[in-house]
Amino acid sequence: MDIKKSPKANLEKSKMMFIQLGLVIVLGFMFIAFEWSQSDVSDVDQFQIQEEVLEEEAIPVTRQEQVQPPPPPPPPKISEVLNIVENDVELEEELIIEDTEIDEDTEVDFVNIDTEDEEIDENVVFQIVEKMPSFPGGEAAMMKFLSDNIKYPTIAQENGIQGRVYVNFVVSKTGEISNIKVVRGVDPALDQEAIRVVKSMPKWEPGEQRGKPVNVSFMLPINFVLN
To answer: Which of 74, 85, 194, 197 fits a disulfide with 165 by CB distance 3.0 to 4.6 angstroms?
Structure first.
């Protein structure tokens, strides 16, 4: 008896299709498996790398140890030593206290102490003394003497030179004038005339210190003015 197959039930026609479908399914599973393993490995590697980076970047926290100051030294022990002295020692000298009360009728003797004045060196030249030296007749007489005796130098008049000459000199204890010098001059001609007229002055009244005549340094300005 011959077996008759229906052409619809013949599977030989779709054999290749099933084989291709199976290959596609197998390849799909293999692809998914490979993709799954690579993603897992990449995630694991990335996680490990991040952990290593975090471990490298972690900075250890250090704290400075506080140094405790040394304890203060113990206070020194004070040993009290008591010297016991017997009360049998006799004092050779006794302190005598006298009554110093003073009544209205008590007489008090005052002792006069003579103070000798210090000797003044005769060669010392004073700058300032109790009584300064003065021209006989006063300042007005001195100004009249200068105006009457000064001769204006011709050279200075021709050149129109004028000004004030400061002359320093010493008035001795006898009233004589010495050590004449120009401290601040204007012109050699005027300076020489100022020295000449000071030399021609009469004796001054000497200065006094503690009631005694002394040598005194004196400064005199002489003004030369052209009329």
So the answer is: 194
CA-CA distances (angstroms) from residue 93 to 85, 86, 90, 166?
Answer: 19, 18, 9, 76
Distance of CA 38 to the CA centre of its chain: 80
Query: What count of Cα atoms within 13 Å lies in the side-chain half-sphere of residue 222?
Result: 29
Q: What is the mean pLDDT of the chain?
A: 75
Burial class (CB in 10 A: 0-12, 13-18, 19+), 146: middle
According to DSSP, the residues that pair with 126 across neighbouring strands are 216
Q: What is the pLDDT of residue 208?
A: 93
In this structure, are residues 147 and 195 in contact, taking their beta carbons and an 8 Å threshold?
no
Q: What angle do CA 63, 65, 71 make, to 5 degrees?
A: 160
Task: Give the domain range for residue 203.
Answer: 125-224
Q: What would the pLDDT profile of 85-105 be if each residue is shown by its tens digit?
A: 455 555 555 545 455 555 555
Please give the share of the chain, as a percent, with pLDDT higher than 90.
Answer: 41
Burial category of 175 from C-beta neighbours within 10 Å (exposed 0-12, middle 13-18, buried 19 and up): middle
Instruction: Give the CATH number, domain containing residue 148.
Output: 3.30.2420
Give 27-88 as a DSSP string. HHHHHHHHHHHHHHHHHHHHHHHHHHHHHHHPPPP--PPPPPPPPPPPPPPPPP------TT
pLDDT tens for residues 190-199? 999 999 999 9
52 vs 139 pLDDT, higher one: 139
Q: Three-state SS for 209? A: strand
